[in-house]
Amino acid sequence: MTGSTFDREAAEERTSGSPTLPAPLTSSGHALDAETLRDLEPRFRHDFSKVRVHTERDDAQGAAALGAAAYTVGTDIVFGSGRYQPQSSAGRRLLAHELAHVVQQDGQVAGPLSGVRLAGAGDAGERAAEAIAAAVDVGPPAGTRRHDHPLLRPLSRTGPAIQRAIAPEDVSSEMVGRTFELTAAVTQRGVTLAAGTVVTITSWLNSAETVGATSAGTPGGFVIAKTGLRPARTAVAGIDPYSSGVAGQASSVTKGEAALNAWVAKKAQYKTPKALASFDKERLRLEGLLATRRKLLNRKLIQETMFNRFDSIIKSEVDAANTANGLTGKAALDPNLLKSMLFQESQLGTSGRHLEVPASHPVKTRFNLGQVIDSSGLALLTMLEAERRDVVTAFSLGDLRKDLVAAQRELATLEKKATRTGAEDARLIDLRGQSAQSWETFIWAYTATGAGVGFADAVSSLFAETVPARNESYTFWIHMAVSWLFTKHRAGVSWPEAIRKYNGGGARAKHYRDAVVGRATDARAAAGRGGTFEPRGM
């Protein structure tokens, strides 16, 4: 998207036709008051100190021209006449909606108004902002433990994001402590390590051509060229290996190094300024080509290591779930299907679309291999109910499902009413916002009547039980992916169909299922031939 976006309060009735952009702001506005900042900043985990509120008459007329209660551009929030009332419930909700847009537009600089577009009520950003406004509106009062951590919200930014999706290079720290095999002998300090020797990585820089490593039984460390490494894999019965093409890429780098060295050796043959310029041009081309090849080798070494490092965990978790559910033989889940699904989701932790560095939400850490995110609230609740009744009791979650069903029934009832009161319309907007997010906002914001803590507190407590935190554990998130997949597998439902349900519905979910099943089938065929399998899409 080019430029900024006007985000208008979704609940406000629009005028017919296409509204025109308002005139530029006439005032510098004022900051949010200290009490409002103390209340809302922790909920969003966002700094709102730069937000400017505009309520002056000329600016308010701009909101009226849009047919909106308020609109947001960057960090400027313009309220219609009499609409800025942060101490009232309705005013607080409207403010929360607009602050959600501030988060979405974070990092954008609002230029001339001609560079912005109007966002309609159906935009994903509008739906998300309304869901958050509803959650703030029903959230617990300040001073409770629930207020001590942010609203765990499904917001996506419409401007340049602080967070970004991970890439293989982001997990290079995971290489330290991993084992690799030498593809050629290495001699240093009078000590020779034969080809096939297993070394343990002690340092790894993405930009370096070499790594630091040690070898068991041999004193001191070694500096090993990345071209001389291949990831060591411990075979796990019943799990097929994946390759990223490390061997071929290492050969490409070696050829590139030889080509560059051969060219540099010819420099003396180029004597005139014109000839030297031609020589340098080719040298730079070869250097650039080699740098690209080295970068790709670094990436492939990381990928292949990550592709196979979880095999034993996958096998253990799937076996345990099959046993717990009494599934054997063809009825049991094939762990290769789970491995393929984790590749589809995050390429085994190296390329997750919704995994971020740093994470904007506790479930968006790079460790969440199965990207249990869109339904994270329901998935975590299901796990807590099955495995951690102590947490359910401690945080008063016993009635959460009952209260959720009641809210869903209330929505259905309000939708059917021919006429509604103003209060019912407001409640309908609230419930529609939560339904649009698959009721995830309801679950995350849930606090039982009379309780000082709720679901988000329970999850925070669960994650904090371990060091490092549980949401920074690959094993935990593999367990969650298995648990959630098994909830999709009911009597009469095949595993391919359960995989489709894991992803959602529609044509996209069918393509997802076919890709997962096809990859597992191809990996098995390659293993049967004694060959290597390189999954597509890396």
Write the layout of secondary structure elements.
Blueprint: E1 4-8, H1 34-44, E2 52-54, H2 57-65, E3 70-73, E4 76-79, H3 89-104, E5 116-119, H4 124-138, E6 179-182, E7 186-188, E8 191-193, E9 198-203, E10 210-215, E11 218-225, E12 229-231, H5 246-264, H6 273-309, H7 311-324, H8 335-346, H9 376-387, H10 389-394, H11 400-416, H12 422-436, H13 440-445, H14 455-464, H15 474-488, H16 495-503, H17 506-529
Parallel strand pairs: 1-5, 2-4
Antiparallel strand pairs: 1-3, 3-4, 6-9, 6-12, 7-8, 9-10, 10-11
Helix pairs in contact: 3-4, 4-12, 5-6, 7-15, 8-17, 11-12, 15-16, 16-17
Q: Can you describe what's shown?
A:
By secondary structure, the protein is α+β, with helices and mostly antiparallel strands. 46% of the residues lie in helices and 10% in strands. A hairpin with a 2-residue loop joins strand 7 (186-188) and strand 8 (191-193).
